[in-house]
Amino acid sequence: MKILFVCLGNICRSPVLEAVLRTQSLRAGLDWQVASCGTGDWHLGQGADPRSCASALRRGYSLQAHRARQLAAADYREYDWLLAADRSNLAELQRRRPATASAQLSLVLPHAGIDTPREVPDPYYGGEAGFDAVIDLAEAFAQRVIERARRA
Description:
Layout: E1 2-7, H1 13-27, E2 33-38, H2 50-58, H3 75-78, E3 81-84, H4 87-96, E4 104-107, H5 108-111, H6 128-151
Parallel strand pairs: 1-2, 1-3, 3-4
Helix pairs in contact: 1-6, 2-6
């Protein structure tokens, strides 16, 4: 399984989703390729937002090695799933989709059968609680996806 998480700047939501699923899938003995990117280019090469790093570290996940990158056309062939944090990023994924794309596109949470909330809220302009909520959603996502893989 090859999963690419996508948000706007690749410094808050998608790196957290990546770190949590990578950690949890390794613990479950699954050989999955997990990565993240952004649709925008504002933070290229930068590390994850310090607030995301702190929130993740409190829960046992490291974002230390993360460097923001932008979505590339090759991602549509390299990954099985491109999972968008929210509807606007999903629309951007659909808009940029090359004719040769093989990846499936979906929102992160509905992909795992989580319908409420349907989107991973962007914590960038909020406080610590928003970053912690992203960790909660990432863990719920990872748990659901891994359970499904074990049953399959």
